[in-house]
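2024-03-11 09:14:02 INFO receiving multi-entity request
2024-03-11 09:14:02 INFO entity count = two
2024-03-11 09:14:03 INFO echoing inputs for audit
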Amino acid sequence: MAHFSDAKPFSEQWLDERLAVKTLKRVLSQEYWIPKNINFLWAMGMILAVTFGLLLISGIFLLMYYKPDVNLAFDSVNYTIMQEVGYGWLFRHIHGVAASVVFLIIYIHMFTGIYYGSYKKGREMIWISGMLLFVTFSAEAFSGYMLPWGQMSYWAGMVITNLFSLGGLELNGLVEWIRGDYVPGDAFLSRFFMLHVLLMPLIIIGVIVLHFGTLRIPHVNNQEGEEIDFDVEAEKYLSGDTKNAKIIRFQWDFLAKDFMVMAFFLTFFFYLVFYHFDFAMDPVNFDPADGLKTPPHIYPEWYFLWSYEILRPFSKNIGLMAFGFAQVIFMLLPFLDRSPNAKPAHTRGLFKVWFWALLVDMIVLSIMGKVPPEGVFNTIGLVAALTFIGLWIALPFITMAEKKA
Amino acid sequence: MSNTNRRDFLGMSFAAVAAVGGVTALVGMKRAWDPLPSVKAAGTTVVDTSTAEANVMYTEKWRGKPVFILKKTKEMVAKASNNEKARDVIVNGEHFLVCIGLCTHLGCIPAYRPESENFLCACHGAEYDQSAINTKAPAPLPMPIPPFTVDGNKIILGKAGDTYNKMKEAGVLGSTPLDPKA
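2024-03-11 09:21:47 INFO inference complete, emitting structure
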């Protein structure tokens, strides 16, 4: 048997003998090293973790009054939670605004990774687990959007579940199986409620742990893409030469920087919650779901607009293929970028053009996804969708031609 | 038999039993998500056409889906193409369009425009003619005709009658593309 001293119960020594808390603390935080050469964009990860926490806590309070039943759901949200429950409106607005803002931060986090080449050799699993989080957050956002059972909930549910018939394959049985009905109904609402409050959050928490785990060995990237020997730098830091070491501790040195950025973020976030929550509350969704009346104009929340617009300008089957392409292509980024340079985009020639072209193209797609599908907007949407596909096809060639820096 | 072999055997037996159990569990889970019998047993819908006005669209509900009923004017019948006429349901000499009113692109409900005598889906801009045959992308197919029986002035939805079966043989129900001008 292991040796146990007479340390005071629950003292650090006592816990360390039983749970190795000192080792855990050292490996996971105090000697988990972060480069000094970073900027505020490196704080987005912790901001996402905090926003997820806000979603979880506000969600728990909403869960106590929400009713997953087609006859009760709409009123349980719009009357009970909004009018009767003490501060129910606050929890709903925190939940709705955080669900929208979390995607803004995810996109910043993603494009930071693309810009600085933080998905390159050694860091592929960071990128892939991050994209898995994007997919699971998307599923979480969609299932949550069903719950108020307004017109947008119902028709988004109709359109998105119809995608699973896979166009010309006509898999209507699969669509009916997903819905548990011919149209979105009670079975559909209850199972999406289950997905939203249990299964998806469980998966998300698991993938967040994986995402943190993937960082531990390659460590986070830095502004210049410099390859840091973390063992050498750690030795320097621990021997007292903290000034010349290129790294700092995660706890509390990096966290102190994080908290600074987080303070700005939370100020912005609660400004939105209290004064501009309406941007996350579509007025159409304040009409109860009606299966016999499609709203004149259906569009998803802003964070899905770019992929929705890729679906729209083509005929059904080609549109679905383009949409499928857009869903998986980001996942493959570490393997499509053939350049060995883990450097920021501004030092990588054509890749810099590619990066900004992709960003602008996705903004154009998002705007076109929101306007009605008419006239010149159709043409712009088609060109932007083709540009998106073209950019990804061009990426291996652009990066292959890149010289080793 | 050595210890190793015995362990391999145990491991493989365990894996085999677990695989069977796993597949069985998946079948059970799949069944749990199937539409319930009460949902499947949704009955028929009876539509009385005697009070219908021409060029006014009526929407009936059948198995949770909207069904469009449109009585055509004499002019509409006169200018209709053969494919358009082949989809007409004739009740007491009057021509009717009967179809499931969901866009064949992604299931939105198209709106009828009496002035141009056609349908427009606001979601993605698809258009359909007076017989619900798609005339503009992204809709790939005509809106489908549900099983129906004509009984005097009434159309019974959900029960396949002679006219429906003939339409099925002619291939005009909407499961295959149709040329609106042919």
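2024-03-11 09:21:48 INFO post-check: The first strand of chain B starts at residue 45 and ends at 48.
2024-03-11 09:21:48 INFO post-check: Chain B has five helices and eleven strands.
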